[in-house]
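2024-03-11 09:14:02 DEBUG pipeline.ingest accepted 1 chain
2024-03-11 09:14:02 DEBUG pipeline.ingest length=76
2024-03-11 09:14:03 DEBUG pipeline.predict start
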Amino acid sequence: MTEDPVIDITRVSDKGQVVIPKEIREKLGFKEGTRLIVVATEDAVILQRIEAVAGKIRVRELMERVRSITSKLRFG
């Protein structure tokens, strides 16, 4: 069974920075200095720990996962 996603709201600062909400950082174990890969689709941005994708998944496969997740969130 898949765990329900944690959903929260944040905003982009005038410097282009985005704060990842504390609950999400704690759940994912993101600490200061954690390196993330940033993937943009037509209407979503996905952040994933670099170590989680290095040597395991190709960018195209990651994009397909992003589209699938986005579709599920949009249409329930």
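2024-03-11 09:14:41 DEBUG pipeline.report Strands lie at 36-40, 45-49.
2024-03-11 09:14:41 DEBUG pipeline.predict end
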